[in-house]
Amino acid sequence: MWWEHNGQYNLGRNFDLLKQGFLEITYKITQGNNQGDQQTIAIELIEKLRQFSAYMHNSIQVVPDADYRKTYGNKAVEEKSFVNIGGGPNWHHPCWQNLDLMLSERDATPWDLFDHAPLPFADNQIEVAYTSHTIEHLDDETVQNLFDEVQRVLKPGGIFRIACPDAASHYRAYKSNEPGYFKFIIPHASPDASLEQLFLLEFAAHASSLNETNQVKKLSDKEIREIFESAPMEEALEQCSSLCTVEVQKAQNGGPHMNWFTESKVQSMLTKAGFEETTPSAYGKSSAYVMRDITFFDYTAPGTSLFVEATKT
């Protein structure tokens, strides 16, 4: 769903989440049996209204098309020399192309990264590339192919920005026994789900009892504890994620998380792809001005995400 305001487009995902929140509160209103329930519901409703007001206040495209033209030139804008890889079926920006597995009613190009096909661009064609919360759905071989391809299609000086779940942050939350951390980022999970299974769902979902597949060995809570007590973080993460398979991922439409990433792993893969400059980044702090527009970029779980950028020299 898209919301159009003052002639500019903005992503409707936050709007959809707010809408769902209103629906949940409406349901609670119909179920409330006493004055205490009604007071709690009223407080929740006021908070949702506050969020909606803030959403509408920020619903204008921050970086106008004119700034794209001023920075990159008319030809780059007209040819849409900016690509979001895995933006989702509802992501649209008037200056950008979007490659995604899911079909879209907008102008996204259907693209299956598991095919390892060359990206549909010439060498040195793209000004800026972006991918957010996509690589955790892919195996290492596919991610490396993606990084190789982005390096090929970027112009010299072009920037590639990557956002993904921060495995080190998840690991710290697990070791600190913080189930609320995972229940916040996995709101659909059962309230009875164990800390171990919630943790596993974030980087090796196929092996979690919370995932529906029966084609992969499931790790029990005890086995997960033993793995992370006996091995260093990255070794333990890899031991679990190695149970995930591309076949199962495709059968589940690429939805679950099957991989883990730390800053060092992402930078190592970017270096292998040929990028000589890689730097850690942060929410809303891209070195490319156009990607500091948080209406379109970096909005997915920023508090638990890892941000890395690479520049083609």
Description:
With 313 residues, this protein is of the alpha/beta class. The chain folds into three domains: 2-57; 65-166 and 261-311, Rossmann fold; 168-251, no CATH class. Helix content is 41%, strand content 15%. It is built from twelve helices and nine strands. The chain has helices at 13-31, 35-57, 65-72, 74-78, 140-153, 167-175, 179-185, 195-201, 221-230, 233-241, 246-251, 263-273; strands at 2-5, 8-11, 82-85, 97-100, 109-110, 126-132, 154-165, 277-280, 305-311. The strands form two sheets. Strands 5-4-3-6-7-9-8 form a seven-stranded mixed β-sheet. A two-stranded antiparallel sheet has the order 1-2. Strand 6, helix 5 and strand 7 (154-165) form a beta-alpha-beta unit. Helix 1 (13-31) packs antiparallel against helix 2, helix 5 crosses helix 12 and helix 9 (221-230) runs antiparallel to helix 10 (233-241). The longest helix has 23 residues, at 35-57. The protein is globular and about 55 Å long. 35% of the residues are buried.
